[in-house]
Specification:
3-stranded antiparallel β-sheet; 25% strand; single chain; 59 residues; 1 helix
């Protein structure tokens, strides 16, 4: 019989460990994937994004 995969626990642990406080307001940030936006001048990719203010930083 095959064993159960433990990927769900590892993914959740990695997600929690990646949270860093926002340097502007101190609230938790999250990792978001953004598409390229030529109007706003933003390149696509993975970004740290604040849940409260407009802070974002390319990861």
């Amino acid at each position: 019989m095959a064993g159960q995969a433990k990927t769900a626990d590892r993914a959740r642990a990695a997600e929690v460990a990646q949270e860093i406080p926002c340097p502007d307001c101190g609230k938790p940030t999250r990792v978001v994937k953004r598409m390229k936006n030529r109007e706003m001048g933003i390149s696509g990719g993975m970004y740290w994004s604040c849940t409260v203010c407009d802070f974002s930083k390319k990861k």
